[in-house]
Every structure is written in structure tokens, then in C-alpha cells.
Amino acid sequence: MDDFIKANEEELVKAVCDIIKIKSVKEEPKEGMPFGEGPAKALQYALSLAESFGLETKNLDNYAGWAQLGSGDEIVGVLVHLDVVPEGSGWSYPPYGGEICDGKIYGRGAIDNKGPAMTALFALKTLKDAGAILNKRVRVIFGTDEESDFECMKYYKTHDEPITMGFSPDASYPIINGEKGILTFSFAASLESKEEGDGIKILSIKGGTRPNMVPDYAEAVILGDIDEVKNAIDTIGKQIGGNFEVAQEGGKIIINSYGISAHASRPETGKNAIMLLVRLLGSMNICGPKASFVRFLDDKIGLDTTGCGLGVDFKDEISGPLTLNVGIADIGAENAAVTINIRYPIKYTGDMVISKIREHTPEPIQITDIHNKEPHYVPEDNILIQKLKKAYEKVTGEKAYCFTIGGGTYARMFDNCVAFGPSFPDDEDLAHQKDEYIKIDTLFKNLRIYTYVLKELAE
């Protein structure tokens, strides 16, 4: 089998570079393209490549698609996605260039999740090239809405066959058998059009692009004394580690806040530009209805990522503590909305979290647009996990073990499914960050693991 794996390595690298060049960020739907043109193009690329390998394929109305090898009633699923989050700023390499430097392929989606998606597809090709006899169907299922609402996989589940077991190469090794619940909602309020009182008047605050990303930029437009603003930046700004710029334009003061992007499942690894800005404004003499909303955010959330101020600093022994990320702020003349993304422990429910947050939210502020994905857990004695352990240990020589994460993968959509790779324990966490890359050596190691484990699961 090793010779067939080696023979596919060069072509795998090219495929990863090529698919990164497709900007597959979710956009407004078009006819026949439910998530916009980019995700549909990426799906069509993957399916065309699979067809060129002689694999059976199917396109489910550009929501999802699959490539398949083998026969039998049972299906082993490999759940991957081709959509990506927006690129953000500060890249050293073109985010959609698919450039190779120092043994790494750079680009948005390199590790999350186009590189692993292509690797899974080439594992099927390798098995086909080797003439492997598979008594189950092995199906690589390509989704196109993983970074938003999983609508692609919901569509698959209602329009195609269920899988018997499977894994999603969209997280880390060794084996992730538990995923925290994911809760997204907005704090919203109606604001009076007339600002009252003496002090700093907030005209608008905007920042962030996705709930599941720590925002690296936010901007406030205010009226007031620029010397007070500069003094706050020199004192409070430095204390909190903020990076702010201030300018005056036509009588208005504009404050730019710069943070560090990170995945919302690990918000403590980033710097939230929105909440740094909220903390800065909260230190000033602000007035009016927007001031009340901003003070609520500063008092109840601030720079904390545990949910303590909202009474939801829950934790359990299986999956650890709850995390909270403020992902989007849109505070304008008449309305204010801030979108929150929470990852809560396996032993809790979304209703428990929301109920406690309501107790800490004053009545003028509404909790709206609630979306909840319940936690997912597969016991360690499951036969799928035992076979994944065997393949991982065979290729790496390292002991396999199970753990849980705050991230959400397609595995939570199916029974007998876990997350399995592609990152190794000591790898840098690059999902949703600038200069995202995948090491070519990591691609090749994953190709070996996935080829061996799919053969084992389908025999």
C-alpha cells in the first residue's frame, strides 16, 4: 500500500493548492447555488476531480456532494467541508493563492478544511489504485456550509442515505469523541434616535464578521473631547493591552481597535477587538442609550471569556469549562445588536445556558436569534474508536487517546461519528487565523492514516 500512497503525493499537493484558489466564503444565494458561487465552485472542483479518478459521485443540488468507493449496505463516511471563513487581514501570503513556502501550503482553508478534504479524496483514490476489496461503501461527503449553520449536512441527511459510522478530519489527533454544545444568539436593543446628557456620545460601533471568529478589528464613531479619548487610550488602553488608533473627521472622532483573530472555541488565544473597544469606551464619560448598552457589555462580559458575569461559567470533568466569544457588533443610530458564540460543556443543555443568561440581562435588552447545537459524545469503547486508534498508532508510533473540544465538526450530526485529525498534538492552531497553512509533511502523514483506517473500517 505504501507505494500507492507515495505515487499520489505530488498530485495531492497540486489539488490542495488549486482548491485553495477558489474563494469559497458563504455569500448570498444564487440560482442553483444555495450558499453563493464560491462554495458551489469548490464543490464542483472536488466532484470533477473524483470523477477523473473513476469514483462514483453525486451532487446534492450544490448543498453537498460525495465521492464513493466500495460496495455493500453499510457506509463509512468521511465528513469534510469546502467552505471557508472570511480571510481577515494581515496576511503575509495571498489568502487565496495556494502558495508553497518552506514546505507549507498557505491559504484560507489549507487546514480548515480543504487540505484534509483533498487528502480524504486521495485516500479513496489510493485504495482504488491498489485494488483494495471494500465490503462497505466508503463515502467522502463534501459539505459547503460548515462555517455557518451546517445546512449542507442537514440537506444531505434528508436527501440521501445515513452513514453507519465515520469521522470528520476537521480538528485534531488523536481522537475527539466529544464536542461541546454550540450556542449562538444576539443581545439586541432599540435605541432612541436622540442622544441625551453631557459626555462622550457614541454614534456607532461596528466590528467582526462571523460569530465563530474572535474579531481582529472594530471601529467606533463618537462625538466628544478628543483629548479625553487620547488620555483613555494612553491609560486604560495600555493597561488592557489594546491597540487603538484615533482620528478626527468632520467633527467626529473615529477609534480603530485592532485585535488578534482566533477560533471562537478558544477565544482566550485571541484578542477581541470589539470588547477591547467596549472596555475603552466604558472607561470614559459616555452618555445616552448606547452608553447603557455598552456598559452592560462591559460589566457582564468585558474581556472575560468564561461567561462568569452572565452566570454561565459552567464546567464538567469530561469537556472542561464553558467559553464565550463576542463575534459581531452592529450598534447604530436606532438599534444595537451584538452576536455571542458560546461553547458549553457536554453535561449541560442550551436551555440551561440561555435561562441563566436571561437572569443577568436587564429587561430593555432582548436575547434574539438563538441557534443551538447540542453536545456530542461517543463512548471510548466504540468499535470505530478502537480502529481509529489502531491506524493512528500504526502510522505515528504514538499512543492514541480520546479527548473533547469546544469546536464543532460534522461528527455531531451523526451517530457513531468522531473527529479525527488532521492536526497533530504539537501543531500550531491555525484555524480562522491569518497565514493559515498546512505542512506538506502533514498532508502525507494524513494520507497514510486515512488510507489505512478506511481500509480497516471497510473490510
Overview of this protein structure:
It contains eleven helices and 25 strands. By secondary structure, the chain is of the alpha+beta class. The strands form six sheets. Strands 10, 11, 12, 13, 14, 15, 18, 19 and 20 form a nine-stranded mixed β-sheet that branches. Strands 1-2-6-3-7-23 form a six-stranded mixed β-sheet, with helices on both faces. The mean pLDDT is 95.
Brief summary:
This protein has 459 residues and is α+β, with helices and mostly antiparallel strands.
List keywords for this structure.
alpha+beta, 9-stranded mixed sheet, 11 helices, 6-stranded mixed sheet, 25 strands, 459 residues
What is the fold's blueprint, element by element?
Layout: H1 2-7, H2 9-20, H3 37-52, E1 56-60, E2 64-69, E3 75-81, E4 99-101, E5 104-106, H4 110-129, E6 137-143, H5 151-159, E7 165-168, E8 171-172, E9 175-179, E10 181-190, E11 200-207, E12 217-223, H6 226-239, E13 243-249, E14 252-258, H7 273-282, E15 286-287, H8 289-300, E16 315-316, E17 320-321, E18 323-331, E19 335-344, H9 350-359, E20 366-373, E21 376-377, H10 383-396, E22 402-405, E23 417-419, E24 422-423, E25 437-439, H11 440-458
Parallel strand pairs: 3-6, 3-7, 7-23, 8-24, 9-22, 11-15
Antiparallel strand pairs: 1-2, 2-6, 4-5, 5-25, 9-21, 10-19, 10-20, 11-12, 11-18, 12-14, 13-14, 16-17, 18-19
Helix pairs in contact: 2-4, 4-11, 6-7, 7-8, 10-11
Number of strands: 25
Rg computed from alpha carbons, rounded to a whole number of angstroms:
23 Å
Low-pLDDT residue intervals, each spanning 5 or more residues: none
Task: Report the mean per-residue pLDDT as an integer.
Answer: 95
Going by helix content, strand content and strand pairing, the class is alpha+beta
Ends apart, CA distance between termini: 15 Å
Describe the largest sheet.
9 strands, mixed
Shape: elongated
Give the DSSP E fraction (strand runs of 2 or more residues): 25-35%
Fraction of helical residues? 25-40%
Number of helices: 11
